[in-house]
Amino acid sequence: MATISDVAREAQVSVATVSRVLNKQDSVKKATADRVYAAIEKLKFEPNILARNFRRSESRVILIIAPNITNPYYSHILTGIGDTANELGYSALIFNTANSEEREKEGMEMLKKRRADGAILLARNQGSQWLEEYAENYPVVQCSEYDPDVPFPHVSIDNYKAVREVMAYLFALGHERIATISSKNRYISTDLRMKAYKDALGEEGLPVEENLVAYAGLDYSFRSGKEAAEKLLAQENRPTAIFCISDTIALGAIAAAMEKGIRVPEDLTVIGFDDVEDTMMFHPYITTVGQPCYELGKNAMRMLYDRINGQLDPQHEMVLKHKFIIRESAGRRKQDD
């Protein structure tokens, strides 16, 4: 097996020069670097990356802090992160918190222990000032959810704008008794979607009726969405449309309607959010807001790479485009409603 000394002899340079080439330092002339690369290829030299990283205090591992990896929304984000990390020479470690802040703190301690070079947070709660210590000392990026008061770069979509589009579409279909199924969490997306819902009703001169606001679980589960929809649909003057803050919740709402003999979309319009694959598993296909999940993950990893290399401002933000997708679960309000 060839050694770094063998490469140096073959390229007629010093061992230190080979080391600088391997570490991609700019101090080596191109012609010299080309000779070193030619020698590496000829001798089939494989550098001891683990040892080199240890000397440079690098792990070449990035940490992904996720709240619930069973949620289908995260699958394409994780794929985007993983594919891009691999392209950039990193491995990705997923730390599942099960929506526990204590578990999240435990995961972030891996940065202090040098077990990871940086972290991507997938479900950042607002009001997390304890993270400021990490913001000052370690490369961290927020993906999808973010806390605007903590100076981490973030990538997301415009949640407020997306829901305003949903509400405008529902008004155009003639709906006025529009319910929403939200969640009692501390995500900025939840707050922005609720604000857009209330603002849209207000601008149409419609009241925000508390009995038309229901809450699913923190995990956005099918069961909690179904239970929330059952409460809405049990009302004598039930809503004609329900906007759900996730597709999984929307699936639960459709199931609740079907069990009550309420047809979707003939009797009830249901709209989701995210565009996970489950939205087209059975009819009616769900009208939803599509998030570019793979691109969210891809850009989060590239931003983290830039942070690791000191090339990205801590206040940097990126907003990706969403897409409102009209399918089968939305219809015009029945005139006799």
Automatic annotation (TrEMBL):
InterPro entries: HTH_LacI, Lambda_DNA-bd_dom_sf, Peripla_BP/Lac1_sug-bd_dom, Peripla_BP_I
GO molecular function: DNA-binding transcription factor activity; transcription cis-regulatory region binding
Keyword Transcription regulation found: yes
Domain HTH lacI-type as annotated: residue spans: 2-56
SUPFAM superfamilies found in the cross-reference section: lambda repressor-like DNA-binding domains (SSF47413), Periplasmic binding protein-like I (SSF53822)
Keyword set, alphabetical order: DNA-binding, Transcription, Transcription regulation
One Pfam entry name: Peripla_BP_1
Domain of life: Bacteria
Keyword Transcription: yes
Protein name: LacI family DNA-binding transcriptional regulator
Origin species: Proteiniclasticum sediminis
